[in-house]
Amino acid sequence: MKQIATGISFVIPMYNSARYIERCLGSFRSDPRVEVIVVDDGSSDNSCQIVEDFIRSSNVNIRLIKNPHGGTSRTRQTGIRQAKFNYISFVDSDDTVIFDNMIKLFEAVVKHQVPLGIGRDALVLLNGARVSSRRRGNGVKDLSKNHRLLAENILMFHGKVFAKDLIRKCYTTDHSVHEDYQTMPMVFAAAGRWYNSNLRVYRTFQQPDSMIMTFLHVSNADALVKTVAAAVELSKTAQNMGLFQKYQPEFEAILILPFVELTANTHLSPKLHQKRKLYQIIVSILTIIVPNWRANRYYRRLFWGFEWNHRIYNLFFHFFVSRLEPIDDSLPNLIEKYKKLLK
Question: Most exposed: 6, 77, 163, 275, by fewest CB within 10 Å?
Fold first, then answer.
């Protein structure tokens, strides 16, 4: 079998990204160890033309792959299959990398012979303000010595370097919402060891029309349905891989996370009414998926390990929502009740 060359392939899923893709590509520099793979997901705007023009004028090793529309996960997975190097990093088409620091993270991963590297993220808000993720210390982390690391790490794809074999094994979902939440716990558990860096390696640009902004501003039942589907799939996948049994308290803590976020965004949405009833249904569904979630050892402190406003979410959920009594009903019936409240 031909040995894969040591280098890093940056995979950029692109869908109607004409406004942002040139800025994203402009954050890369030429390096023989680097390739950039832009995978178009059936864009209907001139995104592909912009990429093709950029390739002609750039000395960066960039490839454009055109796919029919299939969603973000299938687009990333195409990039993984097409990558010629043995390390992968994902970049959203409306974000940028901090190239020199990302290369330093890649070099640290290779030096320490670990399958995963994690850097810091800088969030650029709509008003131009910047918020950086917290420092987690430089050096190798070992999950076998501290299981809590699994419950406290950042469950997002960006700002990381993955061994190709690791991400190919763990990234199996075809969902385009909560796909990182479904995949990253398996990545951390399967990796066992990873390198943490305090370097800022990635810039996330908040966009008013991004999927995460529109999805989490809860105005329909789609958010609940997709949250439930993601949690159920994560639980099943972890069990099938034998990871749930080994890290049960940690995985249960992770399963709580999207329900806390869903509740907080319900609270923040001005379009929703009868919020107390909506909260009660969310708590009831969580109780079906994780029956003893209130007794989870990480529950009270779980979200202190996450970034930005998650601490506010945790306090809101813990002191108000979690005290509601769950409704004794089936999962499909609870979802239908939720839908009716939104009409």
Answer: 6
